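Encode chain A's predicted structure.
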Amino acid sequence: MTINTILYIDDSIENGLTAMGVDPRIDYVASPSLIQRPLTDYDCIITDMKMVHAQSGMEVVERGLREGRLPYVATGGTYEHGGTFNKVQVFNADFEQTFKQMSKADEIFWREALAFIDKKDGQGSQQALRSVRETLGVIPEDQIAILMELYKGNYQK
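Encoded structure for chain A:
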């Protein structure tokens, strides 16, 4: 699938401005409460994990799953978050990639992360979830629960 529109949610305005400066497909909001359109309006959703509170990112993930989208999480182990070096982990239910010596305020991170997402999007669970939503009009609760566990497992790594 071609990604034409991307929604990025992160409470760091610096990260949001960097992302938008690197790729014109990106719409940015600083909080999940500022999302004004259905997530199905976007080909891709990328969310930070900890924003308003520690579970904000997982709330975006669950909303995305309910709307038939498998969001990507971009979460950092950066110095400012108590990490020992800058790194950003990008994952969804199927794929995971760690970008070492980078932060979400680095243009190179966005170029590499978006190349990774462009290559992986539409594969595996991403396509299956979209097909289920198109066929049934809803995502069954048991599928949402399974996918949420996969996200939580990726986040715990």
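The longest strand covers residues 72-76.
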